[in-house]
Sequence to fold (670 residues):
Amino acid sequence: MAVEVVGGAFFSAFFQQVFQKMDSQEVKNFIRGKKLTDGLLKKLRIELLSVNAVYDDAEQKQLSNQVVKQWLHELKEAVFHAEDLLDEIKTEALKRKMEAEFGSSISKVQDLISASFHAFDESIDNKIKEIIETLSFISQQKDAFGLKERCSHRISQTLPSTSLVEGSDVYGRDHEKETIIQLLLSDDVTCNKIGVIPIVGMGGIGKTTLAQLLYNDDKVKQHFVLQAWVCVSDEFGVVKITQTIYASVTSQTCDTTDLDQLQVKLKDALKGKKFLFVLDDVWNENYNIWDSLRRPFESGAHGSKIIVTARNDGVATTMGTLQTHYLKNLLEEDCWFLFAKHASKDASGVVDPNLEVIGRQIVSKCKGLPLAAKSLGGLLRSESKVEEWENVLKSDIWELSYAKIDILPALWLSYQYLSPELKRCFAYCSIFPKDYKFNKSELILLWMAEDLLQPQKKTMLEDVGKKYFDDLISRSFFQYSSSNDCFIMHDLMHDLATYVSGEFCIRLEDHNFSLDVVSKGRHFSYLQYSSNVDYKRFGTIYEAKYLRTFILGDLYLPTVRLDLLLMLQCLRVLKLRVHDITELPDLISNLKHLRYLDLCNTPIQKLPDTVCSLYNLQTLLLSNCTCLAELPTDLRRLINLRHLDFRGTKIKKMPPPPHGQVERSPNIRR
Fold:
């Protein structure tokens, strides 16, 4: 179990951040001389320590006890409130410092500032009292649920980073590979011009990996003139899939959403040419939708093939014309080889004989699932102690029903052994929809904005984030996508992240959240177009007054109410790639906690001067804002600014550099 030791106390993953903020120099300076506030914060610490002691036990028991899960949800909400309060104190301390440095010395102004300080101090004391009362009530219930302190220790997190291509991790699939290659290279023996080969199996069994191996085989590449890979996922969008295939076979994008025009273009591009398409992770069983998609395919040459991977046999029945290939679980020996490859510190795949006996028992519990074997191998890669391997083997997580919670026990166990900081960074990734390709550097900046990166002496936060990211890759929590510079999460890993983050993360694509969930939400995104989105629900997001993340991608939305959005004063991340934003209101100054502002690709013409009062701002992204000609002159007030990108704008002159820059000069990209 992963815990963190700070000042002699063991801090579980969810509490690490709040205690660090409580012990920060800014908070200590703020409460100096304030006996009431100091006393209240000490009481708050005691209440937090009380529930922290049983948090790990509750996190484990929530899987089988719905009441404990609800208790844990209430606890997390209270801790979020405590974090917000401590952020308020830190931000107020920063604001007072900046006003003292830049403000006026006129006595009347000073009197107003003094009155403002007094009002803030009183409001903070009242908020602390409310949080203490809530935590006290929550803490009183822990005994009724039988929650106990776990005597846990931490597994080392120092793992070498790997960059293995997914297709190289194939064991025990030689027969399937050769059988399907023969089908791919031969003309269809049926009357169908286009052969559709379904590969069916449960999540994590290796369908995508096998399809990747086939797709990249040299003989296969030489046989087909055109190839295209489409990650379909749960929404079978005919227009989107057609656009992707057309872009792959022509190396040209086609933005039209007119299906007739699209299909005519694709039909012409395929005419008389032998092609291979892979439709990965298909859920659609509607024959009419499939029939609509495949019409332009008929212009291709005889012998063209389509590989379809799916978890449901109904998909194979709907789409398949050739024999369905059902992937079974790996034989235990093949599963062992995969586990050993990732558990071994070198390329030999040889495991210490003292550990092999235990390792083989662990592999036996993976039940032949490649993703589970790979994940646990990465987990134990840096461990050479027998007792550490035995801890994994004896964990009661194996008793959980996968069907009941939709999470592989092996993957949950891997999550449990993450360090506290990695747990929170991974959980934050539930902000992305399934199959979403994310960028490493962007995710690191988001983690930084959410205070998820643990500061280290003589190491910049960006480098800390890179280490976290590489650790998660080495453990198979992230995977390389087909694009070399992007990454994705396996569906099962995404399910795990979603489960861990719970109702605090809201994706508009899911279109199943209630107003009650929204009011408690901390993170919101809409990054992947979905025809099922009910935009009326979007309006409820403005009710999420504790929201920390608001991310909109380059997608159509009827409108964004900036006046309402800028009232969400807890925002740390604001990404608004909305095509009708030409200016930001002065109310942007309300977002005093904002660390990350992304307005890329918008027609914004000017930034208000009030942007310069966002003293916490770390990242300001303005690339491809083609109407933007200047930056605010007081940008030097942004003493925490680290990343500024205004490539593709009309900006020709930089304002004076930020004053008193922390850690390093900002990364300016122009």
Residues 330-417 form one domain.
